[in-house]
Design brief:
By secondary structure, the protein is an alpha/beta fold. It has four domains: 71 residues; 97 residues, OB fold (Dihydrolipoamide Acetyltransferase, E2P), CATH 2.40.50.140; 191 residues, Rossmann fold, CATH 3.40.50.300; 157 residues, P-loop containing nucleotide triphosphate hydrolases (Rossmann fold, 3-Layer(aba) Sandwich), CATH 3.40.50.300. Helices cover 40% and strands 17% of the residues. It is built from 24 helices and 22 strands. Strand 6 and strand 7 form a beta hairpin. It starts with a helix and ends in an 8-residue tail after the last helix. The C terminus is likely disordered. The structure holds adenosine-5'-diphosphate (ADP) and magnesium ion. The site of adenosine-5'-diphosphate (ADP) has 16 residues, from helix 12.
């Protein structure tokens, strides 16, 4: 591998310096190795030669024909010049059209020579024509046959007459020039044997020039496994290294705080999932290594109580604990619910946010240092250096996707021994993805909602249904319920036709004069926001008009309607989070997705996922299928570059798991990769890091 990666692509037959420069800048291919590992992204079937007379209808796939050109004519002048050729296979004729290279094509193609042409026939005024077909002189021994790979190209390459066919030919030349069967295989033979994977040589040949559909699939499987295996090996090796480096406090004791709350404070039985997760956390806390655990649970699944009980374990062992929330509203809400729970067992809780006054701040600082304050709840204000704990044993971070890795690590530094860290998120990240994104975190999932929750009924409605929607909202309000209305914008500019909060607030106030309407948005002063929120939380206001600031955390069980304006503008995960604000009480709740009349097919599909499912994980998985993992909310900030070439994390879950298990087994047996096999794997990982600059970001 190393040798091939040093072999400049310009020396390959058919390349040369000019094409080499293009390949390097456009596709990142500069060595023999790069070209070998530039895989087709799909295949076309050229096993059949079709007859022109058999063509029927439009929207045909690309297909090939064998025959001769009858005539060539040119039309137009200068840049508009085009070449038309009439082609026959004896059963009928097709017109072929080219819009560039007219002169050179006229010199190349001849009448009377037998060609294979390939392209997509389009029906135009009752005759078929193909624009820019691929044309090869027919030679029985070299004619494209069977499955043919289609390679990625860029606009610039196309402008330089680089087609997928060009790449096919280069790869074919490469497979002639290099004896791929004798290349050292980066995958250990025993793993290949266990998983029934093709050898490197066979896989390289069959991924570029498949001998059959089955071999093409097996070649793809092998390379997916290969990229995932080294990805996982890299992640797990780093995690293991980190774990080995970071000892943690041992919380072995379960005492009065935990037991007292369990006996006197719990107002409902924990769900099975909550119990399981608390067990997983307890095991971490007792292990002697620093806990770095991600707690995933759909909105309303009851993460707060799990976090609280985890904090009680820290307290029972003589340590302090803190919770960091992304917004002031959320921190305050945590403060309220946690103070209430903590009062049962006489535990002191403090709240520190950006708007905490100097006097209170000083008091908190002192109480933290002398240890009389056991639990601190707050926003980013918590990570400021002025905040010093006597002995912070556990840090809980709510809603992970708002915090980066850097902020997490600042929390670690609050002690000479880093505190245990529990990260909570409602962003349901599919398992396959979380394993790769949060490679450094262990994952616990609360996959069960507390009993008695009714799934939210979700509907799509158009602008023309607005009166009907208001009518429905009125009937809910008359029954004493509350409602949220969410807007994509605070104030509209002239250019958009989106609904905005300011206008919406006025319209809704007029429509419902007998109810109190309040509003919150991100540009309000925290105090004012707080005040408006409180009116809604306490039930004095019935309608809350808001932007997405209410997305996370807010808990008003009496709210039964969520109306989302311009729902087409929101991502699926975001819609799911918003919908999670309702359906928290015993009443049937509703989510209404308002859209303009004409929305794109993809958008409609996305919104229909919402109508059909209340399951956050399923929604996230659909989201990933529709948009690809790179776009998933919650992944952008994690600093992960997804440069997997073949693997689709949404659909290749089983292969991810297989590769991960194998990588783990390898590292369990040889943690530092110093054995014979280990050293070779380690070398290959180094090689891969050098190949792809982005790779190193993954750890
Ligand atoms: P989230 O996971 O979205 O943060 P919360 O922790 O805010 O969810 O819990 C949502 C609501 O469910 C709260 O009112 C909480 O008291 C309640 N809850 C939590 N666990 C249970 C349970 N096991 N049984 C009944 N209600 C529960
Ligand atoms: Mg929460």
């Amino acid at each position: 591998m190393t040798d091939l990666s040093r072999l400049d692509i310009k020396y390959l037959k058919g390349v040369g310096p000019k094409r080499a420069a293009l390949l390097a800048t456009e596709l990142g291919i500069s060595s023999y190795y790069d070209l070998l590992y530039d895989f087709p992204f799909r295949y076309i079937d050229r096993s059949q030669v079709y007859t022109i007379s058999s063509l029927q209808g439009d929207s045909l796939p690309s297909m090939q024909f064998k025959g001769r050109f009858i005539s060539f004519t040119t039309h137009g002048e200068g840049r508009k010049r085009r070449l038309q050729a009439l082609f026959t296979d004896g059963t009928g004729t097709i017109e072929m059209v080219w819009f560039n290279r007219v002169k050179s094509l006229l010199e190349t193609y001849k009448t009377g020579v037998e060609y294979i042409v390939f392209g997509q026939p389009k029906l135009f005024k009752n005759t078929y024509s193909i624009i820019h077909p691929e044309v090869d002189v027919y030679k029985p021994e070299t004619a494209p046959r069977g499955l043919v790979g289609v390679y990625n190209l860029t606009e610039k390459l196309r402008n330089h007459y680089f087609t997928s066919r060009t790449l096919q030919k280069l790869v074919a030349a490469m497979l002639q020039a290099v004896d791929v069967g004798s290349l050292p295989d980066p995958l250990p033979p025993r793993l290949r044997a266990r998983r029934g994977l093709l050898s490197l040589g066979e896989a390289l040949r069959n991924i570029h020039l498949p001998a059959s559909v089955e071999l093409m699939q097996r070649a793809q499987l092998r390379f997916k496994y290969e990229e995932l295996f080294f990805l996982e090996l890299n992640i797990i090796k780093n995690v293991k290294g980190r774990n080995a480096k970071l000892p943690g406090f041992v919380f072995s004791h379960i005492g009065d705080c935990f037991n007292g709350f369990y006996e006197r404070g719990l107002r409902f039985p924990l769900t099975g999932a909550q119990k399981r997760v608390i067990k997983e956390i307890r095991a971490d806390l007792g292990s002697g290594r620093q806990m770095n655990r991600l707690l995933q649970g759909d909105v309303g699944s009851g993460k707060t109580i799990v976090a609280f009980m985890t904090m009680l374990i820290a307290l029972d062992n003589g340590f302090q604990a803190c919770i960091m929330a992304p917004t002031e509203i959320l921190a305050t809400q945590h403060y309220e619910s946690i103070s209430e729970m903590a009062s049962v067992i006489g535990v002191h809780v403090g709240l520190l946010t950006g708007s905490t006054g100097k006097k209170e701040r000083d008091r908190l600082h002192a109480a933290l240092l002398d240890g009389s304050l056991q639990i601190l709840i707050g926003t980013h204000a918590l990570i400021e250096d002025t905040v010093q704990f006597r002995n912070l044993g556990l840090a809980v971070i709510d809603e992970q996707h708002r915090f980066g890795v850097v902020q997490r690590s600042r929390l670690w530094k609050k002690n000479s021994t880093p505190p245990h860290v529990l990260v909570m998120t409602a962003t349901p990240i599919p398992r396959t993805l979380s394993m790769t994104v949060y490679g450094d975190l262990d994952v616990s999932v609360i996959d069960e909602l507390p009993p008695g929750r009714k799934p939210v009924t979700t509907r799509m409605r158009y602008e023309s249904d607005r009166q009907q929607v208001y009518h429905f909202l009125g009937t809910e309000l008359r029954q004493g319920r509350q409602a949220y209305i969410v807007y994509p914008l605070i104030e509209s500019t002239e250019k958009t036709d989106l609904h905005d909060l300011i206008n919406g607030y006025e319209a809704v106030s007029q429509e419902f004069p007998h109810y109190r309407v309040v509003y919150v948005h991100g540009k309000m002063k925290p105090k004012e926001k707080q005040h408006q929120m409180e009116l809604f939380v306490s039930g004095q206001a019935q309608i809350l008009v808001a932007t997405t600031v209410i997305e996370v955390g807010v808990n008003v069980p009496n709210a039964s309607v969520m109306i989302i304006e311009n729902a087409e503008r929101f991502g699926l995960s975001q819609l799911h989070q918003l919908r999670g604000r309702v359906g928290r009480g015993a009443d049937q709740s509703y989510c209404i997705l308002m859209t303009k009349h004409q929305i794109a097919g993809d958008t409609r599909k996305r919104l229909e996922v919402m109508v059909q499912s209340n399951d956050g994980f399923k929604i996230a998985e659909e989201d990933m299928k529709l948009r690809g993992p790179g776009d998933m909310e919650g992944t952008q900030q994690s600093g992960v570059a997804f440069n997997l070439k073949l693997t689709n994390l949404a659909t290749d879950g089983p292969i991810v798991e297989m590769a991960r298990n194998d990588a783990m087994a390898v590292l369990d047996a040889d943690p530092a990769l110093q054995g014979q096999e280990g050293r070779r794997l380690d070398e290959h990982m180094h090689f891969l890091r050098g190949q792809q600059a982005d790779w190193s970001l993954i750890s």
